[in-house]
Specification:
The protein has 157 residues and is an all-alpha fold. It is 59% helix and 0% strand. The N and C termini lie far apart (93 Å).
């Protein structure tokens, strides 16, 4: 079946009946369509499909454009999913497949703050002198032991 030739109504219908590899191909086609051209009806059907599958983050990802549609649990799951995927400036808009002329939904708009995007991307400074410090401690210990042996103190076995 040629998925690209299916109408929106047929794609929505197929979401409920396809399984396995066909379902994965159909999901890819729906994502591609939504990336190319926003379609609120298809988007909401896709969100409903993921809700029935129990995939909260995806249900919220596609349903978040309709105020009040996504549950708080779905939005929380989406926020966690988004926080792990920042790579460049407008990542959230791209991940949600939103056109540039639409505002970001308020549930995720705060994630565009640089404090969220830069989290975990600052390199952790390496501890300097870890091995050198160990060598210095070993030499100092040997020196202390040698001076103890060469002192006037007699050791009685």
């Amino acid at each position: 079946m040629r998925l690209k030739l299916l109408s929106t109504e047929r794609v929505i219908e197929a979401l409920g009946s396809f399984q396995g590899k066909q379902l994965n191909l159909l999901r890819d086609e729906v994502r591609s369509r939504l990336n190319r051209r926003p379609d609120d009806k298809l988007r909401l059907a896709f969100a409903e499909h993921y809700r029935t599958q129990g995939v909260r983050s995806e249900a919220a990802r596609w349903g978040i454009t309709v105020p009040g549609w996504s549950t708080p649990e779905e939005i929380l799951s989406l926020r966690h999913w988004l926080l792990g995927r920042f790579e460049h400036h407008d990542e959230i808009r791209e991940r949600l497949c939103l056109p540039f002329d639409k505002p970001l939904p308020q549930e995720v708009a705060d994630l565009t703050d640089p404090a969220f995007r830069e989290r975990g991307q600052t390199p952790v400074p390496e501890a300097k002198g870890g091995c050198a410090a160990l060598i210095v401690i070993a030499i100092a210990s040997l020196f202390a032991f040698a001076s103890l042996l060469t002192s006037g103190y007699k050791w009685i076995p």
